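Preliminary data (for renewal application), magnesium ion complex.
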Amino acid sequence: MRIRELKLMNFRSYESLVLEPDEGLCVLSGDNAEGKTNILESIFLCALGRSHRTSRDAELIRYGKEEGGVRLVLDTRGGTRTIGCRLFARDRKKLSIDGAPLSRSGELLGCLNVVMFAPEDLTLVKGGPGERRRFMDMEISQLKPSYYYTLQRYNTALKQRNALLKDPDHFDAAQASIWDEQIAMLGSEIILDRDEFVEELSGIAADMHMALSDNKEILLVSYEPDVPADDPDRLTETILEKLRANQEKDLARGYTSVGPHRDDIMLELDGTDVRVYGSQGQQRTTVLSLKLSELEIMRGMRDESPVLLLDDVFSELDRKRQELLLKAISDCQTFITCTHLEELVSAGVDRMQVYSVRNGTVNEM
Ligand SMILES: Nc1ncnc2c1ncn2[C@@H]1O[C@H](COP(=O)(O)OP(=O)(O)OP(=O)(O)O)[C@@H](O)[C@H]1O
Ligand SMILES: [Mg+2]
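Predicted structure:
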């Protein structure tokens, strides 16, 4: 897929901006704080219905304005689509596809597929389990929008159960049992989807990592569900039994201790935990392997390449990793930000469209 036009209105540092990017590499070059990431953020917003940096939509509106928005025209195998996102300081955002308003953010998923790779992604390895769950959730939601709805319903049920647990003196056992059933049913769906996703990811990531490490390291990615899916047909009951068995404990603690909200992904290099023992370089390479695998999975599933958003990552990679990254993205429309253009040129990037980004204005060079 390919973005044909991107239009920003009172979005972050941009009063108004229209970009008509080429098919291949689109480089956004400029000093710090000039507005490069803001552009990637606006594209990410059109793919997932939220920013990658904040959950508060109002922050995306240009300071002092009541309203802002993004409009993106996209060519896909299925035809041309126009995605609209209008942001309001005092109201919920309004999303649309081809002018038709969407009642839920989830309806946007799958229209524009993106893979984003930024320095902060190192938290995927170094951060807590929540970061890795967020990664799974974001990817699976893009591949399978129904997952997103299941997850939302799961979170609602979990919140309700936790609210009951926080008030043990007025604990309503009948109500709790209704939430238990919901959590078990939705939780088992989530676990099975994550299991399938990580299984696929694991095979591809191992090959990627092998190539990136000169055949030296074996990366093993494995799903660590809180409730294992050994017997998928009985998973709902298994979760339900555990919820019931832990009810006393949960009441004492005031939160739910069983379920996929406690899942993690294990990342091992030659048998040792990268999360704990990996060197900086190994951790970075692991993240790159995961991101490139994500790209592969999306490409396979949709039968077309997603759009790639690379925020300031090129300079952090050594020559070999740069080359592999370039090879993997050769058929994707890619937006790259950088502060020094020479870095890209010396890495062998050619045929690129370069924009200079300065203080909320963008000019093609
Ligand atoms: N809501 C907003 N309204 C106006 N300006 C904003 C808003 N949010 C952020 N900015 C401005 O946008 C700029 C940051 O933009 P951005 O994060 O895109 O920078 P960048 O070019 O990616 O910089 P770096 O190279 O440091 O990553 C800052 O100057 C900030 O003040
Ligand atoms: Mg930036």
